[in-house]
Amino acid sequence: MWNNLHTGDIPVMETINMKKAIALTAFCIAALVATLVAANPHFIGSPSISDTGTTLLVSGTVAGLGNAGGTADVEVLADATAITVCHNPKGNIAPGQTKTLSVDASGTFPIDQNGRITFSLETDEPTPGACPNGKWTGEVTDVTFDNIRIIVDGQQLYP
Fold first, then answer.
1. Chain CA centroid to CA 102, Å
2. What are phi and psi of 151, to 5 degrees?
3. Is the separation of the CB atoms in 115 and 127 below 8 Å?
4. Fewer CB within 10 Å, N- or C-terminus of the chain?
5. In contact, 148 and 158? CB cutoff 8 Å
6. Are 156 and 150 in contact (CB under 8 A)?
């Protein structure tokens, strides 16, 4: 029945389907653009960064993450310098070695109804530097942190 109705050489039904396809495509593009514009991650206030002696504790609230119900990935990266002391089998302490390394912590956090997350991450304590021999036990006594970075969904927000 539809094949008998023509506008020029194009059947009316094909014209209607093409218009629907164009309208659907335009709607999808508009929705994608709106989502990209809405996602503008930023800190509410400043993040809290604490050197606990041998670990780094970072927490904060990030807004501008888009719609509720999703999740956001947070990663904390830092350069670290670990100070090690060594204990020999008799309990005497000798200086160990200073060790430089990179530390990190990461997690996935739910986005609330306001497009925000609140996170808290702590790095692991680094392993001790080298001691004179295998009978000695190393202990990390202090770690200093530098070049701290906070990344949310692949975007560096700090510094």
1. 16
2. -120, 130
3. no
4. N
5. yes
6. yes
Residues 27-55 pLDDT 10s: 545 444 444 445 899 999 999 999 999 99
3-state secondary structure the chain: CHHHCEECCEEHHHHHHHHHHHHHHHHHHHHHHHHHHHCCCEECCCCEEEECCCCEEEEEEEECCCCCCCEEEEEEEEEEEEEEEEECCCCCEEEEEEEEEEEEEEEEEECCCCCCEEEEEECCCCCCCCCCCCCCEEEEEEEEEEEEEEEECCEEEEC
Picking from 41, 57, 48, the residue whose alpha carbon sits closest to that of residue 107 is 57
Q: Quick one: tokens of 90?
A: 């008799």
Average pLDDT, stretch 62-82? 95
| Look-up of token digits 């927000």 | 157
**In this predicted model, what pLDDT tens digit does every residue of 114-153 receive, in sequence order?**
999 999 999 999 999 888 888 999 999 999 999 999 999 9
pLDDT band at 84 (very low <50, low <70, confident <90, very high): very high
